[in-house]
Amino acid sequence: MRRVLITGASSGIGKQLAQDYAAGGWEVIACGRDEEKLMAVAAASPLIIPLRFDITDLHATREALQGRQVDLAILCAGTCEYLDNGVVDAEKVMRVMNTNFTGPVNCLDALLPGLAPGSRVALVGSVAWLLPFARSEAYGASKAALAFFARSLAVDLAKRQIHISLIQPGFVETPLTSRNDFPMPMMVSVTQASKHIRKKLARGDNEIAFPPLFVRLLKVASLLPISLQQRLCRKMVK
Fold this sequence. Notes:
Elements: E1 3-7, H1 12-23, E2 27-32, H2 35-42, E3 48-52, H3 58-65, E4 72-75, H4 90-111, E5 120-124, H5 137-157, E6 163-169, H6 190-203, E7 207-210, H7 212-221, H8 226-236
Parallel strand pairs: 1-2, 1-4, 2-3, 4-5, 5-6, 6-7
């Protein structure tokens, strides 16, 4: 039986992936911090095994994940906090960086030594880092760091035949995005996101970004001079 480990499995994309992989006959190790929510996810299928720990705690992460052998690991846990009025709140920035970047690194530290050749690790980032969106300093920086880390790690792990996939969604309808107070164009459901991710991972794609039109528009805009990118992003918040 194939085995997948998913962090952030108590809600949003991670929860949907856990349920969908279990429905497809995979054994799912569903990881998260909220025991009550994890147990609710696990109740959906006997193939879902809940595992509670905090990915920002390196010791706890090593204790939970070292020695686990999986065919696929999807590091999906994430958070978002916005900076307001240009005020740099260091504690807020560190919370976002710890969850979105350091957390996946902690998981990789624990998981990679036990992974066999042919296994795959997927890191869930975001296309948000492509442009300097207002208030998104912490979130965008964390996802930019994750993207570089994933792409560089893929080069180093090629000789071990361990594959790295970088998943970069646009707006997905989740409890996290429900807190946003601005327009979110081309939003997709968690069901659509899960279907797209699972299809692309099964195909062995190393870069997975969606929805396609939204991603293309952002990539084209990211080719503009920085001054024009900043002007464009300023207009978005007026």
